[in-house]
Amino acid sequence: MHRTLAGDLSRLPELLQAARDLAVREVEGLAERPVAAPGPPSGRAPLPDAGAGGDGALARFAERWAPGFSGSAGPRYLGFVTGGATPAAVAGDWLTSAFDQNLSGAGGSWAQELERETVVWLRELFGLGEAHSGAFVTGATMSNTVGLAIGREWAGERLVVDVSREGAAALGPLEVLSGSPHSSITKAMSVLGLGRDRLRRVPLLPGNREAVDVAALEAALAERAGRPVIVVANAGTVNTVDFDDLRAIAALKERYDFWLHVDAAFGAFAALSPEHAALVDGLDAADSVCVDLHKWLNVPYDAAVQFTRRRDLQVAVFHNASPYLGGPEGEPDFLHLTPENSRRLRALPAWFSLVAYGRAGHREIVERSVDLARRLGAGVDALPGLRLLAPVRLNVVCFTLAADPSPQRVAALARAVAESGEAFVTPTVYGGVPGLRAAFSNWRTTAADTDRVLRVLAAASV
């Protein structure tokens, strides 16, 4: 064994303790550190030859890279829809690396059963029934890709084409209908060979909405009667967290034949709150569902889950035919259900957080996030230099400058917020108007944090 590697092995407890001490210092200072990196890094170092050992690597990281990492795990990082990582989830994530389980197959480990248990808990959390099976994937993009891949196989079933064997070309054109699809949908369509141009946008409800007009969707389905299509419904759009009427869309399946995929990346968590659970009424009727867990579940990146009613078609798409991996008979190993053969135990941080805080703890995070978004929205609405672009429907505040919201001026506002070190928000365009989004999903965020964000917005928008 290499001398340095052997030395690290002999003092592994001390090395892990040093890493733990660095992590504790960073986490304890997270609330007050700059939310965004102060500037670009200094450059790139050459590849080490001899190696500095674990302690040396830790010291170099702490000196050279850690100061430029964002405070994305902290309470005032409101960009994208980014959760932090609950204490229990961090513990689970560290143990994921320590145990280093290979989730390709059972492999003499109980790890697969832990993932199956976690999937069942999540299915229950989001109000899905036993007909839905699921698996962990890297994020919403991969979850949407898996859902559309199963939908593509379903379309082949309807046309008596085995897409997994004959290819997407044998299927012919397959259209995807949606009102306000996330950008990952067209990315998935490209990856799956459906083609980005096969997306057909359906008119939205009037009145500054991002929800699809169900009557317009029915008309689009009627035009395509006799040809299978995929419908992507949205449970929580990125700009304004608008929800399609899932129950009404599902009812259309009585008259039209289509695959219903619901992108519920973070909107599925509305199911935890009695006040908002009606927004996801009908989710259980979906053929496939996407939920991103490193958002509102507050587990570390990267973690999401996908659900489907057609595991048989999922296996047809993703099974891996190799004697040493085994077949997909019975309860298939996860390598037969997702694109990756090599899979880390992403379920463990989620399992830890669910065991530690339960349904009630995660409900509190959701409801507090919504309350804080409303608080910021009311504050933005009262500022003379800003205006809301849409009502605060759940956990995202979409706003812009009150006067001359040009792309340049809105970008300058975003830079000023980031450079203050107090907060971070991300740009968007809503209704043709450049704006900013502040998304609340971090378990740490408090009313005091929200007021600090409001103060920096007030100063930057003058």
UniProtKB/TrEMBL annotation:
The keyword DNA repair does not apply. Transmembrane segments: none annotated. Its cofactor is pyridoxal 5'-phosphate. InterPro entries: Aromatic_deC (IPR010977), PyrdxlP-dep_de-COase (IPR002129), PyrdxlP-dep_Trfase (IPR015424), PyrdxlP-dep_Trfase_major (IPR015421), PyrdxlP-dep_Trfase_small (IPR015422), Pyridoxal-P_BS (IPR021115). GO terms for molecular function: diaminobutyrate decarboxylase activity. Keywords: Decarboxylase, Lyase, Pyridoxal phosphate. Its EC number is 4.1.1.86. SUPFAM superfamilies: PLP-dependent transferases. Residues 32-52 are annotated as: Disordered. Belongs to the group II decarboxylase family. This is L-2,4-diaminobutyrate decarboxylase. It comes from Streptomyces cyanogenus. The gene is ddc3.
